[in-house]
Design brief:
four-stranded mixed beta sheet, alpha+beta, five-stranded mixed beta sheet, disordered C terminus, 4 helices
């Protein structure tokens, strides 16, 4: 009986940690090239301007943590710790606010390693190299944590992205994100205008 209780306890513990686990991923250059795509006639998605990659972002309608929103931050050429993790406080731009049912997109400089980061109780991040002219799509949700829900961000494919943007892409989303960025700017937070690195000839940004 004691062994059975131990096994049940272990199973519950594993299930709990599985539910709490969030995405923390370093994506190789080869994989970065594979997960990007182009609009190719899409009536929902559009390609980025020259020299940039475009990030489409949406938050699903899951009830878990529906009352909590979180910011998506970016650090170009991130300074990683000894375990390969970025620092949420070391960022150059805040791309948008991930609230339930909200969407946004952001054009970022291509050809440089970047870290996309979100955080509440714990941090979820994606480290990859965006390619010029490519689209990348991120889905956000929340997972249960110890004291509060934790953000979770993952890359999704073009089909999933288009379906989400058909459902979520409304004028109120644009108004919501514009107001969020205006508020952020007035608070003195970081809204990036110029590239935070020296522009290389091989990545001529057509300026």
């Amino acid at each position: 009986m004691h062994i059975v209780l131990q096994m049940i306890g272990l199973a519950c513990t594993l299930l709990f940690f599985s539910a709490c686990s969030i995405n923390k991923k370093f994506i190789s250059l080869v994989k970065s090239k594979q997960i990007g795509f182009i609009s190719d006639g899409s009536y929902v998605l559009q390609d980025p301007p020259p020299g940039k990659a475009r990030i489409y972002v949406f938050r699903d309608n899951s009830r878990i943590g529906s009352y909590v929103g979180y910011t998506l931050r970016i650090e170009y050429e991130p300074k990683l710790d000894s375990k390969g993790r970025p620092n949420y406080d070391n960022y150059q731009d805040s791309l948008g606010y991930m609230a339930v049912g909200k969407t946004f997109f952001a054009d970022i400089w291509a050809g440089h390693l970047v870290a996309l980061m979100t955080k509440t109780e714990a941090m979820s991040y994606l480290i990859f190299t965006p390619m010029e002219g490519q689209i990348y799509c991120i889905q956000g949700n929340m997972k249960n944590g110890w004291t509060m829900p934790r953000p979770n961000i993952v890359f999704v494919n073009k089909t999933t992205c288009e379906e989400a943007w058909i459902d979520y892409y409304k004028s109120e989303n644009i108004d919501f994100q514009n107001q969020w960025r205006k508020t952020y700017n007035e608070r003195g937070d970081r809204i990036l205008i110029e590239p935070p690195f020296e522009v290389l000839d091989s990545y001529n940004l057509h300026n």
